Amino acid sequence: MERVGNTRIDPASGFCTSNSIFYSKRNPLPLPPNHSLDTTTFISSHAHHGNIAFIDASTGLHFTYQQLWLSVDAVASSLSDTGIRKGHVVLLLSPNSLYFPIVCLAVISLGAIITTTNPLNTSREIAKQISDSKPIIAFTTTPLLPKLRAASPNLPIILMDSSPDSDSSPTLEKMMKRKEGYSSGRVRERVNQDDTATLLYSSGTTGPSKGVISSHRNLIAMVEIVLGRFSEQQTFICTVPMFHVYGLAVFATGLLASGSTVVVLSNYEMHDMMSSIEKFRATYLPIVPPILVAMLNNADAIKSKYDLSSLRTVLCGGAPLSKEVTEGFVHNYPNVTILQGYGLTESCGVGASTDSLEESRRYGTAGLLSPSTQAMIVHIETEKPLPVNRTGELWLRGPTIMKGYFSNEEATASTLNSEGWLRTGDVCYFDSDGFLFIVDRLKELIKYKGYQVPPAELEALLLTHPAILDAAVIPYPDMEAGQYPMAYVVRKAGSSISEKQVMDFVAGQVAPYKKVRKVAFISSIPKNPSGKILRKDLIKLATSKL
């Protein structure tokens, strides 16, 4: 046993017998001591050696780091002129682009708060987020403008691209062209590490979407963790959505501190991704499991068509990889190392990771705890801490853990306790070497191609249909998507509503990734005495014929 102060920590597992806490075996984070520090200033203080920061994969348009930081400063000054101040919320609705990070970094440099939303969301879903977060202004693109106008007709909008009718309206391009030195009117308020930087929406452990409040300290710690994983500058391919914590953490903030180059694809398409790796000699590819499985299943065709000799690393987040997938990938792409990562929106996308192929070959693991992160495995009913190789709910504590949920004290209190522990909702255990294994989810979220789909939201929508008496939505396993939403529906007496009618009803009101893709009719929904849906019974019923 090693001793840290009065605590005895097992060097193999990181477990402390005196307080039942698992400690990270990674080197601790070098967090900056300066309290008055914003994320943008912290990132821009790192050397970039004149490299290119971002390249648009489709057009070849690029920004050097010098151009990036000049643009960020110009946009921040322009926002200040429009009255944006510390604490104001700014909405960003956009696909991946070179301009996405510029808006994010400019907003948070002022002490204002960036909230992002999925471009696939419907106007109804966007309106709900606007109603909750109350943004002062929004950034979007011309194709998404009608959706945003429908969601909030009176919200001031800045276009991130040019269009025939944008001559007289404010655009990001005009903001970026602001002349150097014309920033004397900029209001620079003191921004502290404790101030809120981002408001990303997550379904948390259960229920409807909630705004996750992350501070500048949270983001700075996340950037330090990202930096610790890269020993040298890389060229990354960005297909992961920047609105999501995975994309925001890695591409819109984290990697910039390393001076690396990010090749941006507006959305995922296998040919575009592979041809971009070849064209830009990319070395690093962060993806989600369904894309990795697609690369494995189509390996022969991919290798015969594209030159992937530059690719050195694939980082996969979202779900642990099986032995078959890991070894199949290694066999087909022998020069590429698979790394994995585990995290939540509530933890700035970090929590555990594998940092070598040897670690990834602990099949099914999510990896070792991230630097400066602590964990407990807690008995699900008694909340009593458990030791090594015992299964319970994973609790996390550390510098990346959120401040709480926006305007939702009840949800915050049920997820974050007074000692700073985040209840992840994941059922896990640590092995004797400190590797984390995710066994199941307490959360009821459905993971469709990396997107989170809350069943409660779809159930509430189904119950508004005049022909539906009751409904339950469960995850249905799928090789390509991981899971998709399946609905069990109880028809009202005399109703003959069909599977297609149910699916069309939902599809007309939600983003494509939330669509119900399978329906079964049932006489009653199984529930416990308190009325909670017994989803496990329905999952067993649905999968018994597989």
TrEMBL record:
GO cellular component: peroxisome
GO molecular function: ATP binding; CoA-ligase activity
Domain AMP-binding enzyme C-terminal: 457-532
Biased segments, Basic and acidic residues type: 174-188
Residue ranges of every copy of the AMP-dependent synthetase/ligase domain listed in the record: 47-406
Alphabetically ordered keywords of this record: ATP-binding, Ligase, Membrane, Nucleotide-binding, Transmembrane, Transmembrane helix
Domain of life: Eukaryota
InterPro entries from the UniProt entry: AMP-bd_C, AMP-bd_C_sf, AMP-binding_CS, AMP-dep_synth/lig_dom, ANL_N_sf
Stretches for region Disordered: 163-188
SUPFAM superfamilies referenced in this protein's UniProt entry, alphabetically: Acetyl-CoA synthetase-like
Residues spanning the membrane: 89-114, 243-265
Family the entry assigns: Belongs to the ATP-dependent AMP-binding enzyme family.
Record-given protein name: 4-coumaroyl:CoA-ligase
Protein species of origin: Astragalus membranaceus
